[in-house]
Amino acid sequence: MALRRRVAERFREVNGVHPMTAADDAYVSAQFVVLDELCAVTGWDPDGVRRLMLDRRLPLPGYLRSDGAEMVPADLFALAERAGGVARLAEWFVGCWADPARGAAEWDAYLSGRYVCLRSVTPETIRRKDELTAAIRAAPAEPDAGSAAWLDRLHALVDELDVLEPAFTGYDRLRFGGPTSRDTCVDAVRARWPRPVTAPTGR
């Protein structure tokens, strides 16, 4: 229980103290798994995993459900396995960026557990999300903005981001202090620049 309490304290240090509503709990339960349950299936020791989280070797939970359950992605251990073990994970992860400083910053962000903005958190999806959001935000300043070709390009970017990102929940807007990237780069863009409606072809 001491390790569970310490993980909860660290989580709140990172995310602040915000209420989890019934809707938040339902969303999180559908998108994530309870740490103890994941460990039971994968053979990891739950307290061993908590120690790794506190030692900054594995990411913190993405959410604490209102009943205190530590909610983590189902692929929590996938990157460590890909790197050749937890001991190699940090070096491998940072090495996925050409700029070591950027890699170190992304490692810190990964460890925070706040990368709930991706369905699967990998160096590749992190980079691609950054590329897509930057391109979407820059799109209104392009010379052909508003044209049919521009709309096609814009919606292709938005559709790709839509696949990478989950829906988010109200709790996320509290801990992040405002709209999520889905709010600004998917939903708002689709509302402002809807796809042209193609009339059905008659005979």
Describe it for me?
With 203 residues, this protein is mainly alpha-helical. It has two domains: 1-116, no CATH class; 119-196. It is 59% helix and 3% strand. The chain contains eleven helices and three strands. It has a three-stranded antiparallel beta sheet. Helix 1 crosses helix 4 (46-54) and helix 9 packs antiparallel against helix 11 (181-192). The termini are far apart. The mean pLDDT is 95.
Give the fraction of residues assigned to helices.
Answer: 55-70%
**Rg on CA atoms, Å:** 19 Å
Tell me, rounded to a whole number, the average pLDDT. 95
Describe the main β-sheet briefly. Answer: 3 strands, antiparallel
Extract low-pLDDT stretches: none
Q: What structural class results from the helix and strand content?
A: mainly alpha
How large is the count of helical segments? 11
What series of H and E elements makes up the topology?
A: HHEHHEEHHHHHHH
SS elements, strand count: 3
What fraction of residues sit in β-strands?
A: under 5%
Count of all domains: 2
Gist of the model:
This protein has helices at residues 2-15, 22-31, 35-42, 46-54, 78-83, 86-94, 100-111, 123-138, 148-164, 170-175, 181-192, and strands spanning 33-34, 63-64, 70-72.
Jot down its keywords.
203 residues, single chain, mainly alpha, 3-stranded antiparallel beta sheet, 2 domains
List the helices and strands and how they pair.
Layout: H1 2-15, H2 22-31, E1 33-34, H3 35-42, H4 46-54, E2 63-64, E3 70-72, H5 78-83, H6 86-94, H7 100-111, H8 123-138, H9 148-164, H10 170-175, H11 181-192
Antiparallel strand pairs: 1-3, 2-3
Helix pairs in contact: 1-4, 8-9, 9-11
